[in-house]
Amino acid sequence: MLNLVDVRKIYRTAEVETHALGGVSLAVQAGEFVAIMGPSGCGKSTLLNILGLLDSPDSGQYWFFGVDVARYSEKQLTQLRRGGVGFVFQSFNLVDDLNVRENVEVSLLYRGMSGGERQRRVAAALERVGLAHRAKHLPSQLSGGQQQRVAIARALVGEPKLILADEPTGNLDTENGAAVMQMLTDINKAGTTVVMVTHSLAHAALAQRTIRLLDGQVVSETLLAA
Amino acid sequence: MLRNVFAAALRHLYRGKLFAAIAVCGLAVGLSGALLAALYIRSQYSYEHFVPRYEDVYLTTLTMNMSGRSSFTIPETPAQMAGLMRERFAQIGSITRLAQQQVVLRAGEVEQASSIYSVDPNLFETLPLAGVAGDPAAAMAQPGRLVMTRDQARTLFGDDPPLGRTLELQLADGSWQVATVAALLGEIPRERSQLQSRIFISGLTAWTRLAALDRRHGQIKGLSSEVRTLVRLHPGASPAAMCAGLTPMLREFVRKSGAPEEDVRDGPQLDLQRIDRVNTDPAMNPGFSGRMLMAAILGCVILAIACVNFVNLLTARSGSRALEVGVRKLAGAGRTTLAMQFLGEALALVAIAVLLGMAMTELLLPWTNAFLEADASFDYWKEPVVPGVLLLSAVLLGLLAGCWPALVLSALRPIGALHGTRVTRASGGRLRQALVTLQFALLIGLIVAAGVVYLQRQYAMQAALRFDTDQMLIAQMRCTPARLDALRALAGVRDAGCSDNTLIGDGFSAISGTTPDGQPVTVNVSWMDERTLGLFGIAPLAGRMLAAADFDLAAGRSSTSYLINEAAMRRLGFESPAAALGPYPLNQLQQIVGVLPDFSMGPVNQRIEPTVFYADVGNFSRINIKLRGEDMPATLAAIDRLWRATGGSGPLDRFFFEERVEQRYRAMLREAQAFGVIALVAVVLACLGLFGLAAVVAEQRTKEIGIRKALGANTADVLRLLLWQFSKPVVWANLIAWPVAGLGMQRWLAGFAYHVALPLWLFPLAALLALCIALATVIAHALRVAGTKPVTALRHE
Question: What value of ipTM does the predicted structure carry?
Answer without folding.
Answer: 0.81
